[in-house]
Amino acid sequence: MGVKILIRDAARLLGVSEKMIYRWIEERRLPVHRVHGQHRFNRAELLEWALANGVRVSTEMFPEQANAEEPGTTLEGALEAGGIHFIKDGVDRETVLREVVRVLRLPDEVDREFFYEVLLARENLGSTAVGEGIAIPHVRNPILLHVRAAVALCFLERPIPFGALDGNPVETLFVIVAPTSRLHLHLLSRLSAALHDDDFRRALRARRPDQILTVLRRVESGFAQPAPPEPA
Prior knowledge:
Elements: E1 3-5, H1 7-14, H2 18-26, E2 33-35, E3 38-42, H3 43-53, H4 75-82, E4 84-87, H5 93-103, H6 112-125, E5 129-131, E6 134-135, E7 150-160, E8 170-177, H7 181-194, H8 198-206, H9 209-221
Parallel strand pairs: 4-7, 6-8
Antiparallel strand pairs: 1-3, 2-3, 5-6, 7-8
Helix pairs in contact: 1-2, 3-7, 4-9, 5-6, 8-9
């Protein structure tokens, strides 16, 4: 997930004009880097910023997949792999994340304590809460190898403060687990777009797994198909 996105790419990803990108840079709102005197962006940082600031992501910029049939390349498939969980324990961000890691569907050889520490370290860099009671705890660089891509949806019995910009406590968490940076970004992009759908948000508030998957299937069917990879 290197720093390589240009101004024009950032504008396409966020669905705005290049002029707006420059304005956001001047206002010090966008996470931007200077490389050889030019502006460059990190796709993961842009996606996280868009999620936190309610900016819709263009589906045309989803990272393409080498194999569209690979399990977990759709958000619906990843959610079916990760499962929907109802978390009863946890009184703050730390104890909730620990409980979430405990229920994740991970191979026995995965060090859950290490995964928890990495999730917590990411939160300490800046909250992954995106508003309206939703957070997306994740690692910026995938650390789990030889695992199936998955997104676990966790509903909290007790809403907790999570440092959200809108000040609302969090009661719904999506946790992304991916074996590669490419798939991590792909799922984060799709989730960012899906969360702008009103029906999907309503399904989340209803907390009905069957309804959530049905709506998600409809939402993803409307996403633009990724462009084929360029010849090597």
